[in-house]
Specification:
The chain is an alpha+beta fold. It is 44% helix and 14% strand. It has two domains: 4-133, Beta Polymerase, domain 2 (2-Layer Sandwich); 140-299, no CATH class. The protein has a six-stranded mixed β-sheet. It has a two-stranded antiparallel ribbon with strand order 6-8.
Length: 303
C-alpha cells in the first residue's frame, strides 16, 4: 500500500487523499485505488487539483453509481459537488480548499476512466500494472472531419457576426465572437495534438505549456479561405463604417490592414480597431486563415 507521505501533496490535498484511501480500504467492494493527473505525471504545481480513482467489483458497480454522492460526502464537508451528467464520477471542492474529482470503474472494465500515468494507492487483485493507461487511438478521418467543421463553421459564424453588427444587434454579435473564439481554440487544440480524441466542439479548451503552431491544409483550401475572407471583410467594412466602428483611415482602400493581411494570409497583430467586438473578430479571422495557409505545410495536417 502506498504511503501518502511519499507523494508531494499539499497538506489539504493529503488530508483528502488520506480520507479517500481510508474509505476505500474499509470497503471490501473496492478492489483498487490510485491517483492520476498531474500528481501522477510529476507535473503538479500549486494550481493542480486532486484526481482520485477507484475500482469496484462488477457486482457493486451499480451501487456506487446510485450512491456516489453519499460516497463523496464521506470525504468531508463539500462546498461543491457536481457530476455534470457523468455516471461514474464527480467534481468537488472540499471545505479545506482542495479542488478534486473522483472517478470509478468496474473490475472487468475500468481502463477508460483514466488516461496517462497513475500512482497506485492499493491493489487487492493486482489489476494495476504498467503504471500508465494508454490513450485511445484516434480515427484520422474523424479528426479531419472535426478540423473541416471548425474551419467551415468559422466563416458561417463570421457572416452572422457581420449581419449582427449591421443591424446593431450587439448581444447577437457578441455571441458570434464567442463562437468564433471557441473554434479557434479547437484549431489550436488539434494542432497541439491531432490524435486528441477528446477534441470535440463541446470542450473548446486544452492544457498546454507550450506555444502552438497552427495546422496547415493544402493550397486549394488556402485559396478558398482567402477568397472567403476577402468576401466577408468586403461586406464587413461598409457595415462597420456606417455605424462608426472603424477609425477613419480604415475606410481608405490603400490603408486597410485587414485587406492586406487577407491577401497575404498572415495575422492581424495591429488592427487599430476602436471597438472591442470588431477587434476580437478581426484578430480571430486570421487565426483560421493561418490554419489553412500552405506555408509550413510539412508540419500540418492534409486531407
Amino acid at each position: 500500500m502506498m504511503n501518502l507521505r511519499d507523494l508531494e501533496l499539499p497538506d489539504p490535498q493529503r488530508d483528502v487523499a488520506s480520507r479517500f484511501l481510508e474509505l476505500c480500504l474499509a470497503d471490501p467492494r473496492i478492489v483498487a485505488a490510485f491517483i492520476g493527473g498531474s500528481h501522477a505525471r510529476g507535473q503538479a504545481d500549486e494550481y493542480s487539483d486532486l484526481d482520485l480513482y477507484f475500482v469496484t467489483t462488477d457486482e457493486a458497480y451499480e451501487d456506487f453509481v446510485t450512491d456516489k454522492a453519499r460516497f463523496a460526502h464521506q470525504l468531508g464537508r463539500l462546498l461543491f459537488l457536481e457530476d455534470f451528467g457523468e455516471v461514474h464520477g464527480s467534481l468537488f471542492v472540499h471545505e479545506n480548499g482542495t479542488e478534486g474529482e473522483f472517478w470509478f470503474g468496474r473490475q472487468s472494465d475500468f481502463q477508460a476512466i483514466c488516461r496517462g500515468p497513475y500512482t497506485v494507492l492499493f491493489d487487492r487483485l493486482d489489476l494495476l500494472e504498467g503504471g500508465e493507461f494508454p490513450a485511445p487511438a484516434a480515427d484520422h478521418e474523424r479528426q479531419l472531419e472535426v478540423l473541416r467543421r471548425q474551419i467551415d463553421w468559422f466563416w458561417h459564424e463570421l457572416s452572422h457576426f457581420i449581419k449582427a453588427m449591421g443591424r446593431r444587434q450587439w448581444w447577437f454579435a457578441y455571441g458570434q465572437v464567442e463562437a468564433m473564439r471557441r473554434m479557434c481554440v479547437m484549431l489550436a487544440r488539434l494542432d497541439h495534438d491531432f490524435t486528441d480524441t477528446a477534441a470535440v466542439e463541446s470542450e473548446p479548451y486544452f492544457k498546454s505549456r507550450s506555444r502552438c503552431r497552427w495546422p496547415s491544409c493544402n493550397l486549394s483550401e488556402a485559396r478558398v479561405a482567402r477568397s472567403n475572407g476577402r468576401r466577408c471583410f468586403k461586406r464587413a467594412e461598409p457595415c462597420a463604417s456606417i455605424i462608426g466602428l472603424w477609425l477613419p483611415h480604415w475606410r481608405r482602400p490603400t490603408a486597410s490592414p485587414i485587406r492586406s493581411s487577407l491577401n497575404n494570409s498572415c495575422g492581424l497583430s495591429c488592427c487599430g480597431l476602436n471597438h472591442e467586438v470588431v477587434q476580437d473578430a478581426a484578430r480571430i479571422a486570421p487565426v483560421v486563415l493561418a490554419s489553412t495557409r500552405s506555408e509550413g505545410a510539412q508540419g500540418g495536417y492534409r486531407s
